Ig-like domain-containing protein
Amino acid sequence: MQQPLVRYKTMDSCKLQLMALLAVLLLKTAIGTAATWISIIPQGVCVAPGDHIQLDCTLRAASYNDTRLSFYKGSVLVNNTNHDFPKLCRRRGSRCKWDLTARLTVDPASASDEDVYRCEAVQDGRPYTASATVFVQYRSEFQLPTSRVADLGESVTVLLDRKCDQLEPVSVTRTGKDGVVKVLPYRYGREDDRSAYVDKTYGALEIPNFKCTDAGYYNFTVMARRGFEPVSTSKSMYIGLNASCEGCCPEDATVAPTRKSTANTQAETTAVRGVIEKLGCAENNTAYIVVIVVLVSAIAGCVVMILYYRRKLDLTKRNQTEVNVEANDEADPLKSGPNYTEMTGVSV
C-alpha cells in the first residue's frame, strides 16, 4: 500500500520542478518583450521634388508620462511631429510600458529638405537614437564597386548599398567578352543553382560557381517609382578572372603552331593564304568558306568532264565496231550469195 504513495509523491515533485522551470521561462520572456529600443522607418527615402516626406519613429516600452520623441534635421530641432501612445501595455517589473510613436511629415519636399534626420528619446536616463537619410531627387541612390576579381569555382555575391528604394526590383545584364548581352534571371535562390541570377529577396547578384563565361561587365538597374512615374537608375561594374589563373580559360590559351613536315604542304598553305588575302578577309571565316566552295566546284567540274569524255569515247568505239562488222559481212561471199538468203531467210 505504501508503494503507490511513494510514486504519487514522486510525480508531484516532478510536476513542481516543471512548473518552476516554466515560470522562469515566462518571466524571462516577459522581461525580453519589454526591452526598450528605438527604430525609424524608412531608414532611407528618395522622393521627387514636390512630393511629401514621411518618417515614422517608434520607441518600444516607453514611459507613459515623461518620455517624448524629438526629430532633428541635421542638428536643428524639427517641431512638426505628432505623438501617439497606443493602448498596448508592456509590463516590465511592476511598471507598465507603452510603445511611443511619432511621425514627421514634410509636404511639399524641396531640395533644401535633403539631409540626415534623427529621432531621439531619453528613457530612464538612457538616450536612444535612430536616423534616416532623405534624398530629394528622381533617381535612386545606391553604391556599387567599379570592379572585382574572382577565382574559378568561387561563389560571388554583389550586394547593392542602397540608400533608398530598398524593396524595389533590380535588373542585371551581363556583357561578355564576345559582346553578347544576357539578361540574368530575377528569382529566389535555390540550392541547385549553378548559374548567375539576381536574388529577389535582397536584389543581389549571385554567381554560385564562377566560370570563364561569367567574366564581363555587369549593369545594375534599380526600377523604382516616383508617384505614378517609373524611374530607372543604372550603374556598371566589371567582374574578371583572377590574374593568377591566366590561361585557365580555353579562349585565353595560346596554341603553339605545328611544324609542317613537307615542302608541298607549306606551299599549299601559302597558296591558300594568298587567295584569302586577295579576298580581303584573312581572318574572316567567310573567306575560308569561299575557298572551299571554289575548290570543291573545280574538283566536281573535272569529274564531270572526265565522265563525259569517257562516255563519248565508249560511244565512238561502239559505232566503229558496228561498222567493222557490217563491212566484214559484205566481204564474205557465203553471206552475200542467194543460197545464204534461201537457207537463213535473211537478205543481205
